[in-house]
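Figure 3 (text version): structure tokens given as input.
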């Protein structure tokens, strides 16, 4: 199971939110690339990046920091937040981003996402509040169930699905294993858990399912409730 250390970018800084609320942002670094470099040194294969401003604006915002991260680090990078068109996908991939995460657009225009997945390395981000898909930086909740959206991408050629339980995100309350399993079984493709990871017990529980292929670790690392280097070594 792959562990993805996470960095959320807001106003050029590395932050973490609670329940996706922008006003809850806590700054952890003024130089996000240095954090990525530290994850690389710990043995991370991938780092998960989100352009938070971009997620709300519907277009890339933290471009300069993303360029700086890529220029200074060799770890694989996946990036989401405000990616709504092919031009943006191509620009990020040409910058050296290894794969892009499509979230809101995956709900609103699935045919576009499937077309992109046939041409580029694409991950679908499914963010849910009480089981229903949240979009536009989690500012809106749709009428679609997360499992139904996952099922729609079962044979779409996407590399993976990242599913986030928004209510747990950044709260250190423990990952929602059952929700992640439901999404994984609905899609039948690689599924990455996100939201609420607290400590090694979450990693152990996810790994024990044998069906979840990855987990995103954010605030647990920043607040010191998990030994990320040890987790990456297991």
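Below: residues designed for each position.
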């Amino acid at each position: 199971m792959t562990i993805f250390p996470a960095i959320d970018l807001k106003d050029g800084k590395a932050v973490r939110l609670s329940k996706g609320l922008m006003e809850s942002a806590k700054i952890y670094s003024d130089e996000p690339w240095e954090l990525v470099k530290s994850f690389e040194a710990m043995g991370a294969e991938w780092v998960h990046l989100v352009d938070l401003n971009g997620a709300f604006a519907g277009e890339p915002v933290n471009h300069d920091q993303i360029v700086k991260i890529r220029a200074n680090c060799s770890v694989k990078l996946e990036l989401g937040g405000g990616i709504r068109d092919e031009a943006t996908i191509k620009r990020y991939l040409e910058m050296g981003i290894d794969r892009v995460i499509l979230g809101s657009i995956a709900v609103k225009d699935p045919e576009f996402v499937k077309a992109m997945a046939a041409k580029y390395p694409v991950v679908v981000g499914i963010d849910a509040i009480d089981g229903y898909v949240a979009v536009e930086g989690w500012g809106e909740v749709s009428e679609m169930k997360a499992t139904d959206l996952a099922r729609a991408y079962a044979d779409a050629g996407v590399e993976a699905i990242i599913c986030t339980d928004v209510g747990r995100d950044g709260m250190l309350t423990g990952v929602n294993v059952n929700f992640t399993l439901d999404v994984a079984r609905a899609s039948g493709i690689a599924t990455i858990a996100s939201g609420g990871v607290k400590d090694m017990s979450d990693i152990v529980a996810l790994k024990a399912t044998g069906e979840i292929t990855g987990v995103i670790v954010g605030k647990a690392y920043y607040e010191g409730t998990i030994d990320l280097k040890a987790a990456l070594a297991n």
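The longest strand covers residues 2-10.
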